[in-house]
Amino acid sequence: MNRLLCLICITLLFGCEERNSVQTSGDEIEAKVEMSYARGLLISEVENGYRVTVRNPQDTTEIIGVYNLVKAVESGVDTISIPVNSEGLSSTTFVAFFDEIGEIDRISGVTFTDRVMNENLLQNIADEKVRELTSAGEVDFEKVLDVNPDIFMAYTQDESAFSRIEKNDIRVVMNMEYMESTPLGRAEWVKLAGCLTGKLDEATAKFDSIASAYLALKEKAKSGNTPEVFTGSRYKDHWYAPGRDSYIATYIKDAGATYTFNEIEGRASAELDMESVLVSVSDADYWGMVVSQDDPYTMEQLMEIDPMYERIKAVENSNVFFCNAAKSDYFGDAVMEPHVILADLVSIFHPSLLPAHQPVYFSLVKGRE
Asked: Which CATH class is domain 19-200?
């Protein structure tokens, strides 16, 4: 039985924002917008627009791109006219950033429209206002040229293809949110969408509200006990789990729990020996994962994958929680709802703290009959 069984859990902090004015060359005043969580995004307010620098969140010395966003002028080799009228997106995750600030109608094309779950964009797709940009599982740059958006937002480097579309006056803007180590770091990239659409103030207000709600939940979780939680899944003879600096591990800690695999450095998933993992997780209180399937996920299905899971305390006590990505927009809207995910986790780990909470993304797997 082929079931997609991926790892998951969660983390975050919170972010405030400050603007510090500095004098640059000549008479230009540059107001730096302090990014509290997003390590890969730098924004400066300059005369008549913004200067946006995109860096590698894991190595901030690596500059991915610098974009000069200028109000009410035609885009040029070194500038992008804002607000942009239309955007092509290489990831469904980017949809949430524009929807959060009420700018969903500026999206003219997106890859993998069959995976879109955002209701507002689905309506625009049905109304043929948004085009599919994928062929054979990859970005189709012929379709991008045909849609002809003002910008194409991407997350991977493909210099040959990008240079081709940029020759047709379609500017490529890189978005590295997926490499951020915290959920709030990912959500803070909404400010990039704010700059592009002329709504930085609205994007900042939205983010601050989300961060405040997140921090309040994080503080509440400190009053409960501290269960041990692990994530990950088996593939062939190995177990794969994210490192302690991943946003998944952060979610777990911010929800008032300890992360079983906290010895794994970095944010990427590590390959672990299956037998040693079974020993490490045998007494953990909870096991979290992401699945993707049309029918409900059950404990019986979990046991069919590996009967050895019976040896795990979390399985014995029916303390396995999951998100079904086929039913909830975990790879889309969730990027702008870290506070909702955190509430799900707090209610699972500390049910008495949020007794009225209704799960949105994560819930406990139904126990065996």
From this structure: alpha beta
What's the CATH number of domain 4-11+213-364, 3.30.420.10, 3.30.420.140, 3.40.50.1980, 3.30.70.1110?
Answer: 3.40.50.1980
* Order of all β-strands in the sheet with 29-33: 19-23, 29-33, 41-46, 49-56, 59-71, 80-82
Total-model pTM: 0.89
pLDDT of residue 157: 67
Q: Do domains 4-11+213-364 and 19-200 have the same CATH topology?
A: yes
Helix (H) or strand (E) holding 180: none
Q: What is the pLDDT of residues 295-328, one digit of tens each?
A: 989 999 888 888 888 889 999 999 999 999 999 9
CB burial of residue 17 (10 Å; 0-12, 13-18, 19+): middle
Q: Compute the distance between CA of residue 219 and CA of residue 225 in angstroms, rounded to an integer.
A: 13
Domain boundaries, the chain: 4-11+213-364, 19-200
Low-confidence ranges of the chain (pLDDT < 50): 1-27
- Say if CB 320 and CB 366 are below 8 A apart: no
pLDDT in tens, 146-166: 999 999 999 986 677 888 899
Q: Provide the β-strand partners of residue 43.
A: 33, 52
